[in-house]
Structure formats: C-alpha cells, structure tokens
Amino acid sequence: MILIGINIIGWSSYGINHVLIFELDPRSHVTHEEILEGASLLSLIWIISFISFILCEYHQLESHWQPVIFISIITFLLFNPLNIMHRSARYWFCKELFRIFAAPFHRVTFADFWLADQLTSLDLIFYDIEYLICYFAFDAQWTSNQSNRPYLNLTDEQTILYNAPICHAPINTVFQTIIGALPSWFRVAQCLRRYYDTRLGFPHLVNACKYSLGVLVAIFSGLQRQFASKYTNEASNPFFYAWILSQILNSSLKFAWDLKMDWGFFDQRAGENWFLRDELVYPQRLYYYLIIIINFFLRYSWIIRVYLHIQTQSFEHLQLIVFIFALLESFRRFIWNFFRLENEHLNNCGQFRAVRDISVNPRQSLLPTTESEHLLNEHAS
C-alpha cells in the first residue's frame, strides 16, 4: 500500500489522471494521504503482532495465536460492512477481486487487469496463504503440552519448520502448485475474455500465451519439489531444467512486452527520444533509459536466487532469500506502474478512448418549477 500511495503521488504530480483510468468516483476516491495512513496502520498492527510472536517464543509461551489474531484483524478491516476505514474504497477493492476471480464471465476493464498484474508480482502471498491454512488446519499444536516443542531438536531441513508433516507432504505440493499458478491463470482468463469481446488475436491471444508461461513456471516448480527426493541433487532433476527453460522464456517475453506493449517504447515516431516514444510525461529521458536497465535486471534476478538457493543449505537462509527477492519483484512492479499508467494516459488522450459523461441537467428537486420559471423570466427581462 505504501508503494501504491507513492505511485498515486507520482501520477498526480505529472497530470496522469488515474481516477479516470481506473473509472473511480471523482467525489469519493481515496487520496494518497489516506492510502498512506491505511498502510501505516497496517504496518503498526504487523509490527505489534511480530513483536508479540517473538516475545512469546522467547518466554516459551504459546505463539500460534499471534498470526491468527493478526490475520483476523486484517480480514475484519478489509471485509467488515461498517462505514469505517473508507468503506467505498474497500468495496471497490473487493469487487475488483471478485471480477478477477470471475474473469472469463464478464467484460474486462483496465482496473481489472491492472490489479491482476499486481497479483502476479505477489505470488509469494498465495503460497503463504495456502501454507497458513494447511498449517493451522492440520499441523499446528495449539497447546504446549501437545507438542512440548519437539521441533527444536529437529535437524531435517524439510521438516524443521514446526515439524509440519502434512504441510510438507506430496499432496500439499499439488495444492501449492495450483495456488501458485492462480495469478497467471487470472491474466490468461482475462486475455481470453478480451479476445472473445474484440476478436483481436493480437495482442490478446499473444498476451494469453505470455501468461501461460507463468502457469508453466508454477507447474514445473511444483514438479521439481514433488520429485526432489528421487534425485541426489537438483542438477540431476530434469524438472529443474524444465523450470529454468520456462523461466527464461517467461522473463524474456515479459520483458519485451513491458517495453513495447505496456510502456509503448520503441515507437517509430519517437524522434529524438530514441527507443522510447514521441510523447513523454516525466521530465528526464534518462529516467526512462535507467528504468529499462533496472527492469531487465529485476526480470532476470531469479537467476541470482537460483544460484543462492543451490549454494545455501540453511532452511532459514533460503526463506530469507525468497522473501528478499519477493520484495525486489514488488519494487519492480512499483516502477512498472508509473510507466504503464503513463502510456495508458497518453493513449486515452491521443485516441479519445476514455471519456466520462457529465450530466448538465438542472437539479429541479432543489427549486420548484414555478419559482425556476419566475427567476428565468426575471433574468431575461
């Protein structure tokens, strides 16, 4: 939310009408100040929950309840029907989530696929949600006399995390794979729906193929973990190489799509804006060239993650690596947002694609007809 708030500051500062692009109500949409306030509140709740969890572990108290309480508070703040915490904005967000899940069955708007793109950069959250549900449903030891913390003496890397046999079982890998593929599948469904509505094979079918590669990445990642025990190391696991190949294709196509389709670069009419486009909203061309380079390295940062994964044997370090690279992907999406909405704004202005009808009918309920006519006649005379 903090990054989205900064995005809105940037869009507003340079005249990018995100309210019109997202088809928000100009009278009741949340401002960047309100978004940053909400982000600060959620961050404070998380910090309190995290510190409470650490203190419970340190004093050997039951700590399982801390994540449950945290998730319950966040769920209440998001879904409660009370007119608090910007109910209209929360309703809009929940409605958009529903539209993403029901993508094949209705027309897709810019806000739909923009939010779905954000979810593709937050796929780690989907894995975490699946694991939390599995852990608290099957593996959590809710009282200290049930578990007596036996996991503290474990050395097996595959079961060191709370000694969770069910959540590390092969069947759960299947569920994790399905959950991990959902963000990319949402975009595939949206692209197919847009093709159905427009009958344009390009860009919609090509875009669907691009996101299908993300589904393949999730599938091969799941197969690699599913059959890892049958191979001495990852170098002898054929699914590891299938995952690498799908990742290369996925990153390459998405990087090219970012530049040409999402950002509108490599325009033939770019003129002195080499490799960019004719119109630029942000003041310095250098920003654009730097962002191209940064986006390239962040798109392929998974190569470094794979190297560190192979070199690192500690389970805790592996989890830290995954978390750090998830933050990098969130940062890449944050940068992507600036230029994606810039391109959409320029297309709307240049092609008159986005308009909003404004009613100019007199508000007759405020003034009786006879009195209105009397005032008009008086003005005419």
Automatic annotation (TrEMBL):
The keyword Hydrolase does not apply. Pfam families: EXS. The chain crosses the membrane at residues 35-55, 67-85, 286-308, 320-339. One of its GO terms (cellular component) is Golgi apparatus. It is a multi-pass membrane protein. Residues 167-373 form the EXS domain. GO terms for biological process: cellular response to phosphate starvation; phosphate ion transport. It is found in: Membrane. Its main location: membrane. Keywords: Membrane, Transmembrane, Transmembrane helix. GO terms for molecular function: inositol hexakisphosphate binding. InterPro entries: EXS_C. This is EXS domain-containing protein. It comes from Rotaria socialis.
